[in-house]
Structure formats: structure tokens, C-alpha cells
Amino acid sequence: MNKFSQRTSLFATAALGLFMMACTTACKKNDDNSTPPVTTPGQQHFTIASWTQDQQYVAAVPSLSSGALSFKGKGLEANGSRYIWHKQYVYLMNLPEKKFIRYEMKSDGTLKQVDYLLTDGVVPNYFQSINVIDDNNILVLGALDAGNNGVIGWARIAIPEFKVVAKGNLQVPFDAANPDVEYFVGKGFVDNGKFIVGGYFYDNKKKTYVVDGVRALVYDYPAMNNMKVIQTNVTAGGIGYDYLSTVDKDEEGNHYFVVSAGKYWTGLGGRSGVVRIKKGTADFDKDYFFDVTSQVGQQGCLMGMTYVSNGIAFGAVQFEDLMTSLRDRYKNIAQVVKLDLKNKKATLMNTPLSPVGMVRSPLVFKEKYYTGIAPVGQEAAIYEFDPKGDANAFKKGISLDGGGSVQVQLIAPHPVN
Question: Which of 38, 240, 290, 396 has the least CB density, counted as fewest CB within 10 Å?
Fold first, then answer.
């Protein structure tokens, strides 16, 4: 499924929702929906989620550094759009069925769907923004419905029980004089009793983004009220896009948001980069903006970022000079970029151009960065990147076969005994 535009999927999933049965408690799946062990006990295993030519899968593998994986017949079919993992669980949002699904990754290499929540009865629509707050809580925000005057649903889910323990309505920015302009909520985090979340504005009538600097929303947590809008004018674009890896924090607890200011992605073709919110504060650091576009050229739009260690993160840029429309993001127009957050230095890695910019949830494991690179018409693989190296400090790992195309959505480690 093509999942760029919530503006399209909002109404499609809402129509499907008329035929769904509301459910606010976890619905148990049968015990047969699992994968067999993939190797011997005691070895590290990983789960990979991917869109392929015909289906979407989650599958477990015994290694990321070598071997090959053909998804068809080797994993569980999983129609997903938003993916996260935490500890031994992978979570997937199935938009057409409005199911928030949990899979358990076991130390023996098996992967099993264990339960799910139906979002009807929890929020009015699907879970658009999914945020792991801590070891015990996931905070989800619903998608907007047309004509709701800027009100969305939210819910807090207890991780161990996989149960909704609190829910309510949330006000997002809305101007009654401009009802066609909607705010689409993105990724967020909790710090010092505040939930700080990004997003972007879109004019549904004019079919264009609406940008005024960089804005985020701040709420009291866990009450989820008292909305405040914070803003910086270092650039102009949306931040914290909802299904990409677009917010992370360093060892000191400072949080970094990806600002996508692209012509084809939450902006109007400006300077994409990184903004910061210091630990314990609830406003942008006015002295910090990492301008990535000016360093990488070709109107490079930063799409995602994942922090590794010692001030180094990795992400992906899509080169909008190579694009003529949004659909070109599925062509070879994106590249991995190394981000030195302390020195504000961007280094393009000498990786092949590919649609890698759309990988939703890459992995940091033992201070290495792993992401999927799948050039059109060439071999797809998981690549490992060393943050201590230069533009060539990467190596190709396990190859992936999706029957014609592969888009890696998530990479997650299983627990080890």
C-alpha cells in the first residue's frame, strides 16, 4: 500500500471503519500464527518487517551481517503502515483493519502475533502517532476526521497488559476561518511532565503544505491538556513526521527533531535539518539549528534520523532536484547521511542511491546503525554503518528478496537468554 498521504488514507480507513466492530480490550489471536525457530538457542536473532512486491511481511533471521532472506513463505503476512519495537515486542498499525497488533520476539528466533487492539472505541480513527513513553506506557494519538474542528483522540496503553488505561480528546491547532488547513500530528516524547509532539499543517483545498517557521505542541502529561504552541524561525517545515524515525535523544537527554522542509515533504523547498529541545525544557533551543540541506546539495530533504552515540546520528535525505513529484520517492533518489550533531556536520555516505529515505524504523545495535538499502532493479540488503568511520565506513549484510521489490520498514533485535 502507498501510505504517504494521511489525507487520502484518513477517509479510506474511515469508510472501512463503518464495517468494523468496536473493541477496547486486547483481542487474543490463535497460537498458530508464529514462525518456526530460525537457528540454535543462545544466538542473537532479529526481526525484519518489509513491504514486498505483493505482500507485507515480518520475518525473523539469525543474522544481519550475512545470509539471505526471501520473505515469501518465510514470515508472517502483516499489512502495516506504522511500526515500532520495544524490548521483546514489535508493534504494527494495520490501517485498513484498524488493528494495533503486537508480536512477541522470542530468544529462540520465533516470532508470534500475540494480541491486538481495535482502534474503534479507543480513538475515532486509526493510531497515527505511536510513542513509547517508558517501559510501561505507549501513548497513541488518533488521526483527524474531516470536520472535527481540530479534536483528535488519544490513549495510553499499558505495555505489560497491552490494555488501554486512559483515553480522551486532544485539541490541536485549528482556525475556523481556514477550515481546510489541518494539523497532522507526528512523533513526540515526554520530559519533565510535558508531552512535546511535532507535526505539520496541510491545506486540503490548495493541496499544499502551510509552513510558518517550525512549530511543536506541548501538553501536560499524563493529563494531555493545556495545549501550548512553541515555535522557532530558524527554518520553515514540518517536524517529527509520524511514521518515520524523526525524533531521538542523546546521552544527556536532549531531544532532536527532524525538520523536513522539502517541496515534496512537509515544506516549501527550504532548508531541512535538525532542531533541538534541551533536557528538562519545553521550548526550542534558539541557538541550535543543524542545516543539512546546505551541506548535501541537490535540495536534500532530511527524512529521518536515528541517534547512535557520542553526538553521531544517521539518517536519510531525499534529493528533490532528482524528483518531479512525490511518487518519485520510490525511485533511486535517496541516500544515507551521517549527522554530527555536536559539530553540525553532514556527511553523505557512499552508498547507492535508492528509496532508502522511506525506511520507517532503522536499528541501532551495539553502537552500529542498520538500515535497508534497496536500489530499484538491484539487490536489496541490510547495511551496517560504523559511526566512528568515514563516508565508506559501512558494509552490506543480509540480502533481501521480495519478489521484485523490497522496502524495509523495521529492524528489531530479539532478546537473548
Answer: 396
**Domain identity same for 181 and 86:** no
Q: Which helix (H) or strand (E) holds 348?
A: strand 345-348
Q: What is the pLDDT of residues 107-138, one digit of tens each?
A: 999 999 999 999 988 998 899 999 999 999 99
Question: Which cell is 89 given?
Answer: 515486542
pLDDT digits (tens, 9 = 90+) for 12-69: 333 333 333 333 334 434 345 677 766 566 799 999 999 988 889 999 999 999 999 9
Q: Which domain holds residue 107?
A: 1-171+405-417
Closest CA to 157 of 126, 131, 120: 131
pLDDT at residue 267 above 80? yes
State the pTM of this model.
0.90
Give how far Cα 14 sits from Cα of 165, 215, 298, Å: 24, 28, 38
Under 8 Å CB-to-CB from 276, ≥6 apart: which residues? 254, 255, 256, 257, 284, 285, 288
Residue 235 carries which side chain, given as an amino acid letter?
T
Are 113 and 218 contained in the same domain?
Answer: no
Residues 39 and 144 grouped into a single domain: yes
Same domain, 49 and 125: yes
Total domains in the fold of the chain? 2
∠ CA 186-192-198, rounded to 5°: 15
pLDDT one-digit tens code per residue, 280-299: 999 999 999 999 999 999 99
